[in-house]
Design a protein that fits this description.
heterodimer, A: two-stranded antiparallel ribbon, two-stranded antiparallel ribbon, 18 helices, 8 strands, B: alpha/beta, Rossmann fold
Chain lengths: 368, 270
């Protein structure tokens, strides 16, 4: 019999820095990822795929918000504004009647656009902190909605704009995917596109937070005066965090626009910002994994509530229907309730819950 | 980490050594309150210089001026001939001034290793994009500086705590970790703001030992602000006593201890 290591012993610093520890952990992760990649093959319902697609889009945006709020400690209510910028940038850059860039380029363009605007907003964070910064970013949402409604040439005004983006990468069209003689639907194709991007974004974010810039961001969050005294330039990391966060928000917005093929200004309201705050609180503030977990749980929730509103008692689904709460208000109430419950009972979110479960099974069957 | 400091070198007269830090005529006001009123002193290489004085005498204000948190209205501060005035705290850190805080300035949610790695911040180069990509230098730098951090862990005997969040550590260990983060910066000048405040005798003795270790092994000057007189008298080469933002006297511990003005400042004159 050959003895196996349990993977906790490392002999080199490079081993210590490995993201996925032992061989078993790697195989386990690979198995889960493969299983997840096959979900669209087994689940063919357009509705359930759309729930997962929206969750993936939310995961990208939540990664961004977590970098800013979870890792750098800058509370922002302006996330919806940057998501809107991404959506409209995708409409302009990817639309065949406009710039007509290919898939990777309009995604990149929208990301950079969001990052640029975020970097312009960033300097406010140098003067303001906590609630004051939250109020400035809150103003951003209303400012944005006004601009989206009135810059008709770019955004189509109140009635919105259609987003017809190219969706071909290396000869594969995600809107109409053909592989091994099989035809895949729009929802299936976009599942792979969106979750592929989630994977890449999560890996980049994870690398960021475990290296010098990410540590500096967390130092700014935990104690900014001490951070400055050890040589962390507050301005650089606050503005950088804003730029990256808004870049990811814009990427999520670009995916959202492209997936919906149509966007309207009222989508990018305060409620969307609060949804993202709920996602990172439920998932786990200051964890990469938590952003995705939170998005999986909450990202598709509005769609689910909409779908099943008829069977939820007391919900008004149409005019003349008896009920005391509209679908939209129900959404708001549920997100609000989740924020309150998690802040009170599990402030570190589902990610902390998961770590506790993992720690329990590591020691199983011993309770210590 | 070279051994350049011998106990004798610091006893040499001031004229023989060029001072590392020169502070002259520093005046710091907050509105109508004058926190520092004409502070002059110098600190030589390898010296352990202590600042004492009653509460509110301006000891911590001196530290805040030295690392750029406050900008004094008058006077000059130079380190190795470089003017520190009008420089931002992060720049001053890069020039080699490290500091610990009276009420702890640790990053509580980060592990011991991460706190110490942050001490290496100015020595590292990885930016946002390189960090994200985990490309060549990013990984190489992490390993290289982890080695430097391990030397600090060894010097301060922090081995049992590596992966624990700093905020969860016992108070004495947190103080030690903060000292570790400061020396991880490989500073020329180390500012210690009440390193044994709130510690019992045994912890204080440990801390004194670590301070002496740091002093023996590393080539740096230290300024110590401390209320515990026994510690100051045991460790310091020279002591400056302050009262109401004005230095009363500077000299050897024996000299300062017996100075009538110092005794008055502490006990209240008349």
């Amino acid at each position: 019999m050959r003895a196996r290591t349990h993977g906790l012993m490392t002999r080199k610093y490079s081993d210590d820095l490995r993201l996925f520890g032992s061989t078993n952990a790697k195989l386990g992760l690979l198995a889960i990822l493969l299983l997840y990649a096959f979900v669209p093959v087994f689940v063919q319902s357009a509705f359930w795929l759309s729930v997962l697609d929206y969750a993936g889009i939310a995961a990208v945006g939540a990664l961004g918000l977590n970098l800013l709020t979870g890792y750098t400690g800058q509370v922002s209510l302006g996330h919806a504004f940057f998501i809107g910028i991404g959506a409209y940038a995708a409409a302009k850059l990817g639309g065949p009647d406009d710039v007509g860039l290919p898939l990777p380029l309009w995604l990149l363009g929208a990301t950079l656009m969001g990052a640029f605007v975020g970097a312009l907003i960033g300097p406010f964070a140098l003067r303001l902190r906590g609630n004051y910064l939250a109020i400035v970013t809150l103003g951003l949402v209303f400012l944005g909605e006004h601009v989206f409604r009135n810059a008709k040439e770019i955004t189509g005004g109140n009635s919105g704009t259609s987003v017809q983006t190219a969706s071909t990468l290396l000869g594969a069209d995600f809107k109409d995917l053909q592989f091994l003689g099989q035809n895949f639907s729009f929802n299936q194709g976009y599942f792979w596109l969106i979750w592929g991007i989630v994977g890449i974004a999560a890996l980049l974010c994870k690398n960021l937070v475990r290296t010098r810039p990410g540590r500096a961001m967390q130092a700014v969050r935990d104690r900014d005066v001490a951070a400055e005294v050890i040589g962390v330039q507050l301005g650089r990391y606050k503005v950088g965090a804003f730029a990256m966060s808004s870049g990811l928000a814009a990427l999520a917005g670009a995916l959202l626009g492209s997936y919906q093929q149509f966007v309207t200004p009222e989508q990018f309201n305060l409620f969307l910002s609060i949804q993202y705050i709920a996602i990172i609180i439920v998932g786990g503030v200051g964890t990469i994994f938590g952003s995705i977990l939170g998005a999986l749980v909450l990202g598709g929730l509005p769609g689910l509530i909409d779908q099943y509103s008829a069977s939820i008692p007391g919900v008004t689904t149409g005019s003349g229907d008896s009920g005391f709460i509209s679908v939209f208000s129900l959404n708001q109430a549920i997100f609000g309730l989740l924020i309150v419950l998690f802040l009170v009972f599990e402030p570190r979110g589902l990610a902390a819950l998961w770590l506790r479960v993992k720690a329990y099974f590591k020691a199983w069957p011993f309770s210590y | 980490m070279t051994e350049t400091v011998s106990p004798d070198a610091t006893d040499a007269p001031a004229a023989e050594q060029k001072a590392l830090l020169e502070v002259s005529g520093v005046v710091l006001r907050f509105g109508g309150v004058t926190a520092l009123d004409g502070v002059d002193f110098d600190v030589r290489r390898g010296e352990l210089f202590a600042v004492i004085g009653p509460n509110g005498a301006g000891k911590t204000s001196i530290f805040n001026c030295l690392n750029g948190v406050y900008t004094p209205q008058e006077g000059s501060i130079t380190l190795d001939g470089t003017d520190l005035l009008k420089k931002a705290p992060a720049q001053i850190a890069g020039l080699g001034v490290a500091r610990t805080f009276q009420n702890l300035g640790l990053f509580e949610n980060l592990t011991v290793v991460d706190n110490l790695m942050l001490g290496r911040h100015t020595k590292m180069r990885t930016g946002f994009l390189a960090g994200m990509a985990w490309w060549g230098r990013a990984k190489r730098e992490e390993i290289e500086h982890r080695e430097a951090v391990e030397r600090v862990i060894e010097l301060l005997e922090l081995e049992p705590y590596r992966g624990q969040p700093a905020g969860k550590l016992p108070y004495g260990v947190q103080k030690r970790l903060e000292l570790g983060r400061a020396i991880a910066m490989e500073p020329k000048l180390l500012l210690l703001d009440e390193p044994v405040a709130g510690m019992h005798l045994e912890e204080s003795q440990d801390m004194a030992r670590y301070i002496l270790d740091v002093r023996d092994r590393l080539d740096l000057a230290m300024i110590l602000v401390e209320h515990q007189m026994a510690l100051v008298m045991d460790l310091a080469d020279r002591v400056m006593a302050m009262d109401f933002g004005v230095p009363i006297t500077v000299g050897t511990p024996e000299h300062v201890q017996n100075d009538q003005r110092v005794i008055d400042a502490y006990l209240g004159a008349g």
